[in-house]
Write a structure and sequence with these properties.
Structural class: alpha+beta
Low-confidence stretches: none
Strand order of the largest sheet: 6-2-1-3-7
Number of strands: 7
Shape: elongated
Largest sheet: 5 strands, mixed
Distance between the termini: 118 Å
Strand content: 5-15%
Number of helices: 10
Helix content: 55-70%
Mean pLDDT: 86
Length: 275
C-alpha cells in the first residue's frame, strides 16, 4: 500500500515537471540558449587569427628590446662625448702651455705636423688634362664646391700638388669638422646618399670598427684614427654652397691673392662662408 502511494507521488511530480517544460518561459530560455551557441570557426580562419596574435606579440617584444637598446646607447654616446671633449681640451691646453714655455725661454715652438686636410674643389674641368681629371675623381671631387677629408701622406701630398690650381685645401679645426658633419653629413649606404639623422645608421655600418655614434665619426676624422679610411668612405662628399662674398680670384694661388692652393688654417674661414 505504501509503495503504491510513493509511486503515485512520483507520477504527479513527473507530470508537473513536464507541464513546466511546456511553459513560454522555458521555451524562451531554450531559444536563447540555442541562439548563444557559436557556429564552428573554419580552420584557416582560426590559424590566421593565431598567427596575427603571435606576430603582434613578437612585434611588442622587438619594440621593447629596441627601446632598451636605445636607452643603453644614449648612455654610451654621452660617456663617449664627454671623454672626447676632455681629450680635445687637454690637447689644446698642452699646445698653449708649450707655446708659452717656448716664448718664455726665448725659443720657437714647432707646431705639430698636420695629418688631416680638407680639400674643396673650386674650378671646373674645361680644358683639364686627363691625369688631373683622374686625380679629382680619385679624391671624389666630381662637382664644384664639393669637399672631402684627406689623410696627408706622401702620395696624397703629390696628388694635391698636381691638382692645386683646381682646389683649395688646408688644415681644418674641430669646429669646422663638427659643423660639416652635423650640418652637411650624409652617409653612403648601398650606393645611396642618406642623411645621417640617427646614430643607428652609423652603428649599422661601422659597429665592427667600434664607431657607433656621430661623435665617434668626428673623433676618428679629426685624429686620423686607425679606421679613418672606412669612416671617410662612409661619408658622402660634402656639397657646399658658393662662399658668401664670392671668391677673390680662382685662377691665382692663395699666396698671390687668389683662392687656389694650400691656405693651411685659413681654410676654416673659407668653409665657414661656404657652409
Amino acid at each position: 500500500k505504501s509503495s503504491c502511494i510513493i509511486s503515485f507521488f512520483f507520477f504527479l511530480f513527473d507530470k508537473r515537471m513536464a507541464s513546466q517544460a511546456d511553459t513560454p518561459i522555458a521555451e524562451a530560455h531554450n531559444a536563447s540558449a540555442k541562439k548563444n551557441v557559436r557556429p564552428p570557426v573554419p580552420e584557416t580562419l582560426r590559424k590566421m587569427i593565431q598567427a596575427r596574435r603571435e606576430s603582434r606579440a613578437r612585434l611588442h617584444i622587438i619594440k621593447e628590446r629596441v627601446a632598451l637598446r636605445r636607452k643603453e646607447m644614449r648612455k654610451i654616446v654621452i660617456r663617449r662625448a664627454e671623454k672626447y671633449h676632455n681629450e680635445y681640451k687637454a690637447r689644446e691646453r698642452h699646445l698653449v702651455t708649450e707655446r708659452r714655455r717656448a716664448k718664455r725661454n726665448g725659443a720657437f715652438f714647432r707646431e705639430p705636423e698636420a695629418k688631416l686636410a680638407l680639400v674643396v674643389r673650386i674650378r671646373g674641368i674645361n680644358g683639364v688634362d686627363p691625369r688631373t681629371k683622374k686625380i679629382l675623381q680619385l679624391l671624389r671631387l666630381r662637382q664644384i664646391n664639393n669637399a672631402v677629408f684627406v689623410k696627408l701622406n706622401g702620395a696624397t701630398a703629390n696628388m694635391l700638388r698636381l691638382v692645386e690650381p683646381y682646389v683649395a685645401f688646408g688644415t681644418p679645426n674641430l669646429k669646422t669638422v663638427r659643423e660639416l658633419i652635423y650640418k652637411r653629413g650624409f652617409a653612403k649606404i648601398g650606393g645611396q646618399r642618406i642623411a645621417i639623422t640617427d646614430n643607428w645608421l652609423i652603428e649599422k655600418k661601422l659597429k665592427k670598427f667600434n664607431v657607433v655614434c656621430i661623435e665617434d665619426v668626428i673623433h676618428e676624422i679629426l685624429t686620423v684614427g686607425p679606421h679613418f679610411k672606412e669612416v671617410n668612405k662612409f661619408l658622402w662628399p660634402f656639397k657646399l654652397n658658393c662662399p658668401r662674398g664670392g671668391f677673390s680670384n680662382k685662377k691665382k694661388h692663395f699666396q698671390e691673392g687668389g683662392d687656389a692652393g694650400n691656405r693651411e688654417f685659413k681654410i676654416n674661414e673659407l668653409v665657414q662662408r661656404m657652409n
